Amino acid sequence: MSVLDNWEQWKDFLGSRLNQAETEGMSQNVVSDVAYQVGEYLAQQVEPKNEQERVLAELWNVADEQEQHAIANMMVKLVQNEG
């Protein structure tokens, strides 16, 4: 089973990667850029596996680049607040 199959597992996965990045000294700007790149990859290459991912994919696809960065930053904030 992929971490993309379950929304909670996906958030846990992102949270653990975020903690690892922060432990290794990545700046918030680098984390933000990586989050954007992950979002772009997922939007272009990965079929949404659940309802939440479908909503994110739809929002990502209608957003301009600035809005996509905001979505990526909100996902980072979401997992930070839950971690």
Description:
This is DUF3243 domain-containing protein. InterPro entries: DUF3243, Uncharacterised_YmfJ, YmfJ/YflH_sf. It contains 4 helices and no strands. With 83 residues, the protein is mainly α. It has a single domain, classed as Cytochrome Bc1 Complex, Chain D, domain 2 (Orthogonal Bundle). Helix 1 packs across helix 4 (65-82) and helix 2 (28-45) packs across helix 4. The protein is globular, with a radius of gyration of 12 Å. 10% of the residues are buried. The model has no long low-confidence stretch (mean pLDDT 89).
SSE layout and pairing:
Layout: H1 7-23, H2 28-45, H3 51-62, H4 65-82
Helix pairs in contact: 1-4, 2-4
N/C terminus separation:
23 Å
Mean pLDDT: 89
How many extended strands? 0
Order of helices and strands: HHHH
